[in-house]
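Hey,
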Amino acid sequence: LNDLMRTSRPIRSDGMVTRRRPGRIGAMKLWRTWVAVFAIAATSGVGAGLIEQTVGRGYFTLRIVAAVLAFVLFVSMAKTVIPWAFTNFAVVAFLLWSALSLLWSEDRGATVTTLLGLASVVMLAVSLVRMGDRDFAPRLLMWTLTGATVLSAFAIWLFPAIGTVSVTHPTEGAIVQPIGVFAWNSDLGFAATLAAILALTLALRTRQWWLLSVVILNVAMVWVSNAATLIIALGVAFLVVLFTINRNPSAIVGAFFGAGILVAIVVFGPQGFVDRVFGALGRSSTMTGRVGLWEETIRQGQTHPWTGAGAGVEPDLVALTTAVHS
């Protein structure tokens, strides 16, 4: 954090760089950096499991913490942030549409809670972007989330009573899920996935190849998390990063060719082939029940094709009999 927020040091006439302690501006920046760190951690769900076990309502508590910290950060930078935030028309339009959904929402309580969460995330995001240069926000996110995954690794292997949880899975039966300092294995997987993507992006753009060790660490934690969807998302994201940074046409053609072969194998392969492939990975061709969830959710969505049921309104969970979660 000190490296991220170090103040510029003046150069003397003889070319030597003088050293000085951070002034008032530097101290204020460091103050905001720590607020941002805790806001990122709360937003990503760090500590939700422990709060749930001790006082209950872990996610609700963290959402309030994240909203307060994001609001403090946003207000402290209001003159810089507000004019810039309103130039991002896609974000503003998304928030306005979500707010308008209160008019037709089937669960206004869920929609209000969702709007508060969305507002805190947007306030945090625009504040992060305006706090430093173009690498500040991705680096702060990467290190905060990497710190959470490292703590999760210690919790999983040294304190399994805290870092793991036994659950009854609708398709896999009774299993032990690694959660680390989070409440769900998918939260751990998401934090590690995002950290890995940011580290790879920074490594390719800045040529700081030691960041690849951060990529490897977080990819390993994605695998440990046993979050199948995020393992797929990580592969897709890596391809996107490679294409957008290198823009190598042959790599793009090769990737599409490889994807075409995989699709052909799935579609035209012998019956049971896909199940055997997924079975070797400890999975099933239904993505551990998610295909049924998606089909039922799409069917329910067709009853509100234009407006939806309201921001944050869940599908009818009674109909989702094979769902792992909503």
